[in-house]
Specification:
The protein has a 5-stranded mixed sheet with strand order 1-2-3-4-5, with helices on both faces. The chain has 136 residues and is of the alpha+beta class. Helices cover 32% and strands 22% of the residues. 24% of the residues are buried.
């Protein structure tokens, strides 16, 4: 299993993975919108895990000079529970640490207890914050 930066030929595999992993995400998070947006800003921090030519996982990382962020951590259903999610997160963490990032944030739906437990096992903690957003 190789983890590497995204390539254009990965698009259909990432799209299929995200549709499986995030079936209820809003349209702005779909591959057709999110991938070009990410490629325009720190595009080298969109990583894919590949088993041969098949995309089995993704993670996006970003750094604004103050905090790092993780997005779209996904593992194909038939590849879960084998450590790939952990490898993807650690890979993204190393990319952010190389930029002198001192803190990483991420957002998880409050109803997704399994994913919260996954991140807690990796050393992340639920913080007493309210997440606000505004779409343009």
């Amino acid at each position: 299993m190789e983890i590497r930066p995204y390539r254009d030929e990965d698009f259909s595999g990432v799209k299929a993975l995200w549709e499986e992993a995030f079936p209820h995400d809003p349209p702005a998070n779909r591959a057709e919108i999110a991938i070009p947006a990410k490629l325009a800003v720190q595009g080298e921090r969109l990583f894919v895990a590949c088993d041969g030519e098949s995309v089995t996982g993704t993670v996006m990382a970003g750094y604004d000079g103050h905090r790092g962020w993780l997005y779209s951590v996904a593992v194909r259903g038939d590849s879960r529970r084998g450590g790939l999610g952990t490898r993807l997160v650690r890979h993204a963490e190393q990319a952010l640490l190389a930029m002198n990032c001192a803190k990483i944030n991420l957002q998880v739906r409050s109803t997704n207890a399994a994913v919260v437990a996954f991140y807690e096992a990796l050393g992340y903690a639920v913080e007493d914050r309210i997440s606000l957003g505004k779409r343009f």
